[in-house]
Amino acid sequence: MQYQAWFRCTNGEHGQWSIEDVLYHCPTCGGLLEVAHDLNALRARSPSAWMRLFDDRYKRTAWPYGSGVWGKKEWVLPQLDDANVVSLDEGGTNLFWANRYGQSIGLEDLWIKMCGNSHTGSFKDLGMTVLVSVVKQMIAHGSPIQAVVCASTGDTSASLAAYCAVAGIQSVVLLPRGLISTAQLVQPLANGSRVLALDTDFDGCMEIVQRLAREPGVYLANSMNSLRLEGQKTIAVEIVQQFDWEVPDWVVIPGGNLGNVSALGSGFLMLYELGLIRTLPRIAVAQAERANPLYLAFTRGFDRLEPVYTKQTLASAIRIGNPVSYDRAVRTLVRFDGVVEQATEDELADAAARADLTGMFNDPHTGVALAVLEKLVRARTIARGQRVAVISTANGLKFIDFKVRYHQAALAELGITSREVNRPVELPADFDAVRRTVFG
Ligand SMILES: *Cc1c(COP(=O)(O)O)cnc(C)c1O
Ligand SMILES: [Zn+2]
Fold first, then answer.
1. What is the pLDDT of residue 223?
2. Residue 290: CB within 6 Å of ligand 1?
3. From atom 1 of ligand 1, which residue's Cα is the shortest distance away?
4. 235-253 pLDDT tens trace
5. Ligand nearest to the CA of 127
6. Residues of the chain with pLDDT under 50
7. What atom in ligand 1 is closest to the CA of residue 256?
8. Is the Cβ atom of 317 under 6 angstroms away from ligand 1?
9. pLDDT in tens, 278-320
């Protein structure tokens, strides 16, 4: 195949490197790398031919092209051998019309993209399939990789552990002790990962893992490794595909390390540059008020990143004070006429609960996105008739403790009022008692 992708520096023409090189920063300027594609070669296929190809593969059996990521393989990593693809049939998640919730907040065309309905319960699977596949190919080509490591707020490690277990590769994950959900802790344990729970927060884990990654035989799986963003960017392509190749007016996404908003942007730009779409959506990044460095920078006109000390938040997967992909995220937000808004603990918990009452089962990060959505609608930044897609990033079942404590009204220490509490009524096994309760 004539299509090609390679690493290049995000700051300028400082060289080109193979995607199989063990390299995370530009040797010239220290900037992050990104994956570049030969767009001219990709343009040789017409927009409608790409749409037909992607539609023909979508959720079908021909392995690995039924995956939402690998169905777009030419746009992701064309040089990867199919034999090295490590896939769990990720992507292809439902995008549903949230009509009753939308009406209740003043929107007619609100859609939720359920990226958490994935193998490990979060959208991190989309990028991890790409990274672990490249590792498998590197090992097949003789690279002496012994372990793939990451620091994580819980979802990256669950995903890395699963994909490495599928491929038979050792994973090592560094987690902030006591700051992730029980499900997130047990996932990598079950998959045979070396799980190191450190007495620090995510930012502390990140510092140590970057040093660890300089040891020979160790490969870094954090999103500063831009291979992951190549998988995550397929969210944009898949949303447009699910809208029959139409572009929504807005996409709302929760942000922590900010790799995903950048990936979302690069997916839309690829669609745009290859002629599949003629407009770009606006993007809103939603942050927790207790971990809000991007929001603060936004209110100062993106002058610069000032890292923050984060505070405890229910949105633990986006509790990041010093986001690695800040620069890429700002570039994306400028290009997409984007905005950043924040949500308090009380706001995120109630937004999640209100939306749950219309049939969802939201995790706290999606709660942040929904609370921000409600604010942007109230501020008339988002108008009633506009089409909005909210990225739901994780499955609520991974965050049961949040849900249980909300409905016990046991989150007061975080300033949460629990306005939508619903509790079980405990009764003897007695018909009359049941009848009185149902009709009383
Ligand atoms: C990773 C993650 C995010 C944020 O993605 P970033 O790229 O770190 O900004 C949001 N929600 C959930 C559930 C996540 O796991
Ligand atoms: Zn550079």
1. 84
2. no
3. 317
4. 999 999 999 999 999 999 9
5. 1
6. none
7. 9
8. yes
9. 999 999 999 999 999 999 999 999 999 999 999 999 999 999 9
Model-level pTM?
Answer: 0.97
Residues 362, 98 contacting (CB under 8 angstroms): no
Instruction: Report if residue 242 sits inside a domain.
Output: yes
The domain of 274 spans 95-117+229-411
57 lies in some domain = no
341, 336, 343, 403: which is closest to 368 by C-alpha?
343
In a domain, 138, yes or no: no
Q: Is position 193 within any domain?
A: no
Ligand 1 within 6 A of CB of 393? yes
Choose one of 184, 365, 390 to mutate for the ligand 1 pocket test, by most ligand atoms within 8 angstroms of C-beta.
Answer: 365
Read off the CATH number of the domain in which 233 is found: 3.40.50.1100
* Number of domains forming the structure of the chain: 1
